[in-house]
Amino acid sequence: MPVYNKLVRDKIPQIIEQAGKTFTTRILEDDEYRKELRKKAFEELEEYMNAGDDEKALEELADVLEIIHALAECHGSSIERVEQIRAEKAEKRGGFKEKIFLVEVHDE
Question: By three-state DSSP, how is residue 91 classified?
Fold first, then answer.
């Protein structure tokens, strides 16, 4: 019997049940939920880093984005607010489209 002890998507218990299996779950308290979301973010990002092709990478990025949506709500906000902050930072500091790699800065 595998033990997972990790945050899963909302429909996973239903999917497990439809497969004819039994399971144990519990509902997390808010502070534990935030902690587990952060752990899940690292897990999903690692899966993205290990993606072998573009399609798998996009699938993993979608998972990362789902976690970002949940984290925004967890912080009492929305993905729209996160996008607004992202756009403001891009306006002030730029994005990453120009592929600039900073090697060093010389103090003179």
Answer: helix
Is 57 strand, coil or helix? helix
| CA–CA separation, 23 and 11 (whole Å) | 13
Query: 108 falls in which pLDDT band (50, 70, 90)?
Result: confident
First to last CA, the chain: 63
Determine the structural domain holding residue 80 and report its residue range.
29-93
Residue 99, both tokens: 């592929």
| Its pTM surpasses 0.70 | yes
Helix crossing, 54-74 with 79-93: angle to 10°? Answer: 110
In a domain, 43, yes or no: yes
